[in-house]
Amino acid sequence: MIAGGVILFHAAALWALQSGLLRKAAEVVVPVELLAQIIEPPRPAPPPPPPPPPPAPPKKEVVKPPPRPQAVRETRPTPPPPNAPTGVVEPPPPAPPAPATPPAPPAPPAPPPAPPAAPAQKELTGAQAQWLVKPPLVFPAMSKRLGESGTVVVRIIFDSEGNAKRATVVTSSGYERLDVAGREAALRSRIAINLPAGTPRSPEYAYTAPLAFVLN
């Protein structure tokens, strides 16, 4: 029976080899070994960070020792010398009396009042000024062409003889050419000055005259 069992066992093994059961077992075993080789072992965890440094201890306030007291020397007044004068001051001798001032001289008599000065310039009215030579008005040719006309008021300054010295335009005619012509005509005029008897003469007389430029 033992020999028969051994023979039966070998026969079953041979039959298994022929049927491929061992091959399938080998195929199942090989992937397990390959998977065991591919899977890597887990990496170790990183070490924990170092703990923060401990806080610095608070600084201690340095207390300065109080200053040492210094010795103060007492100043004693020095006694005056034996021959020094005492605190009593003798009054100074009285000053000699001032000499008497002489009386002031009498004031000179006031000068007589001066006569009233004549005015530097006197205004003349129409009755006090009489034309000896009227202002010779010359109508500008350009004003005639343009049809310019108007009245210019001129203030004329005469000397004591009635001769024209200066002339200024007081009121414009509205045209510069007519104003210039009127002022030039006033400088060529002359008047006779009619003043009441006893009237002080003046070096200059002023008379305001209107000069009309009218187109015919």
Major sheet characteristics: 4 strands, mixed
> Which radius of gyration do the C-alpha atoms yield?
72 Å
Going across the biggest sheet, name each strand in turn. Answer: 1-6-3-4
Separation of termini?
A: 183 Å
Structural class of the secondary elements?
alpha+beta
Short description:
This protein is an alpha+beta fold and 216 residues long.
Fold and architecture overview:
The protein is α+β, with helices and mostly antiparallel strands. It has helices at 2-19, 21-38, 141-146, 176-186; strands at 121-123, 129-133, 150-159, 164-171, 190-193, 204-213. It is built from four helices and six strands; from the N terminus they run ααββαββαββ. The strands form two sheets. The protein has a four-stranded mixed beta sheet with strand order 1-6-3-4, covered by helices on one side. The protein has a two-stranded antiparallel sheet with strand order 2-5. The model is unreliable at 28-36 (pLDDT under 50).
Search tags:
single chain, 216 residues, alpha+beta, 4-stranded mixed sheet, two-stranded antiparallel sheet, 4 helices
Outline the secondary-structure elements.
Blueprint: H1 2-19, H2 21-38, E1 121-123, E2 129-133, H3 141-146, E3 150-159, E4 164-171, H4 176-186, E5 190-193, E6 204-213
Parallel strand pairs: 1-6
Antiparallel strand pairs: 2-5, 3-4, 3-6
